[in-house]
Write a structure and sequence with these properties.
Length: about 70
Amino acid sequence: MSLDWSGYDGVEMIPGKVGGVPLLKNSRVPADLVADCLEDGETVEEVSYNYDLNPLDVARLKQYIEVHQPVLRR
């Protein structure tokens, strides 16, 4: 999945950091990877644990996705 992350403050794009792809802030985890995991049915807790992320950050990202990609709503 590839969303336009420019409107989400929980994602940063820094040239030279992981090739400048959109990452969850303060991490090296691509936002699209987290979105794909959630789309595949992983829970916020599973994604947080598997990628050593703050569960609140993953939950906020999930909410952003649900608003901007309604197909993912279950």
